[in-house]
């Protein structure tokens, strides 16, 4: 199942849902109905979002902050126990602010029965590694 989980996560990014020009609804077939989108506590909007609507809302919020943005998955790592860690390059540009960003992120995905149940993102690899360590 681990290889399948990596391919599911790869397919989510391939839909373009993590890009400003993409349609987040294209990824919903890979997400569990009870999907959870977790931001780090230091994010502007740190509250979790739930379900398909929560995922779409998270992607729309990025469009409100930036005129264009893109998440490029660089490395997908199977962590076992239905977890996949993705090293990502986040690039964004704001026309009004004239702000351009290019920075690393890490997305920790949890899956169950062939569907993604949760994603958390981090700007620090140590935080991602800590969250990826199972407590059981």
3D architecture notes:
- This protein is of the alpha+beta class.
- It has a single domain, classed as Nuclear Transport Factor 2, Chain: A.
- 26% of the residues lie in helices and 42% in strands.
- The longest helix is centred in the middle third of the chain and has 15 residues, at 51-65.
Question: Layout of SSEs?
Answer:
Blueprint lengths: L1 H13 L16 E8 L10 E2 H15 L2 E13 L2 E12 L4 E14 L2 E8 L2 H8 L4
Parallel strand pairs: 1-6
Antiparallel strand pairs: 1-2, 3-4, 4-5, 5-6
Mean pLDDT: 90
According to DSSP, the number of beta strands is 6
* Global shape: globular
CATH-defined architecture: Roll
SS content category: alpha+beta
Reading off the top of the CATH hierarchy, the class is best stated as Alpha Beta
What fold name stands as the CATH topology? Answer: Nuclear Transport Factor 2, Chain: A
Q: Write out the strand line-up for the largest beta sheet, numbering strands in chain order.
A: 2-1-6-5-4-3
Low-confidence region ranges: none
Q: How much helicity do the residues have?
A: 25-40%
Helices and strands, in order, run as: HEEHEEEEH
Count of discrete alpha- or pi-helical segments spanning 4 or more residues = 3
Largest sheet: 6 strands, mixed
Number of domains: 1
| N-C termini distance | 19 Å
Our Rg estimate from Cα atoms comes to: 14 Å
Classify the beta-strand content into a percent band. 35-45%
Task: Give a quick summary of the entry.
The chain is α+β, with helices and mostly antiparallel strands and 136 residues long. Helices cover 26% and strands 42% of the residues.
């Amino acid at each position: 199942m681990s290889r399948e989980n990596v391919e599911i996560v790869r397919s989510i990014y391939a839909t373009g849902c993590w890009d400003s020009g993409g349609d987040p609804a294209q990824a919903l077939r890979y997400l569990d109905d009870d999907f959870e989108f977790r931001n780090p506590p230091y994010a502007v909007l740190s509250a979790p979002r739930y379900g398909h609507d929560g995922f779409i809302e998270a992607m729309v919020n990025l469009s409100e902050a930036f005129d264009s943005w893109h998440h490029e998955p660089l490395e997908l790592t199977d962590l076992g126990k239905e977890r996949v860690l993705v090293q990502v390059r986040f690039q964004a540009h704001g026309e009004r602010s004239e702000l351009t960003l290019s920075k690393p992120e890490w997305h920790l995905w949890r899956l169950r029965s062939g569907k993604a149940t949760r994603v958390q993102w981090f700007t620090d690899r140590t935080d991602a590694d800590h969250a990826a360590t199972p407590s059981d």
